[in-house]
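@channel sequence for tomorrow's demo:
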Amino acid sequence: MTTARSIIPLLNRLISRSQPSRSVTYMHRPGDGSPRPVTLIPGDGVGPLVTDAVEQVMEAMHAPVYFEKFEVHGTMKKFPEEVLDSIRKNKVCIKGGLATPMGGGVNSLNVYLRKELDLYASLVNCFNMRGLPTRHENVDIVVIRENTEGEYAGLEHEVVPGVVESLKVITKFCSERIASYAFEYAYLNNRKKVTAVHKANIMKLADGLFLEACREVAQKYPAIQYNEIIVDNCCMQLVSKPEQFDVMVTPNLYGNLVANTAAGICGGTGVMPGGNVGAEHAVFEQGASAGNVGKDSIVAQKTANPVALLLSSAMMLRHLQFPAFADRLETAVQKVILQGKVRTKDLGGSSTTQEVVDAVIDALD
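structure tokens (generated this afternoon):
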């Protein structure tokens, strides 16, 4: 026999379905619809494929942005000054990866760009996507990484033949501002916990200073839970119970390792968005392994996964205060992933980059 208690939930569901959902009203400022210039760097390897995907989708959406495109390659001895001028003028850039020679050779232009523009915060969002099965569920991690010092300071020299000294630089100033950015992000995005990743049990002065700054900033945000974890234990916890993490704040090198590990848990570097931001400028790129330009075979077969950079471009649109366009793009990408019909090889499919782009454009509202 059907009881009143069992009918009530059914009635509630029917009522909720019959009620139209109310759209979120965004009151723009006069002139906000004017097209915004964005510096575009296709980069090396798969970079031109995935940045072209962004251009096509932006055009299909009639997004209020236009691109100033520049050729920059990782083999260049220095970053072209006209490209830096464009980013300084436009404030926003989207880029593909720039190849970095291993060992000897030129320094990484990816790192140079972050330092030159003081893009001190790297943000990578690693999360489960509906329709993309992974070992773990309910994962939604934001890795916020200090971007300008640490082991990436580039201070190396050969003391005597066969002995190289590499300096790790940690400052109170840079530690405080990355901690402040992480807690501010958590506050603005209704995140509940910030975890500082460190190795202060061994690097007592350097990582100890980083933790000191994090603890001081944490006191200003009593509503946000704060904890600390040693980096090696952090990696083990990530692959065994990643859902315990929320926002993670890290020094430079640890953040690279943590972000790539978290990305692998959630589907791979081909789907995780990210960007780098400072007080004046922002550069958006693939979230994890941003300097990885892909295999030659992927370039030749044109099968690079454009999802990560498409989602990064949605982050860019939101940064530019075009939230409705960002929502449309993210929704279209999520529809394509959920349907599972069009996927590149890294996600278990056989589609080309262009086929994914076409599917995303078809899914746009």
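heads up for whoever presents: Confidence is low (pLDDT under 50) at residues 1-5.
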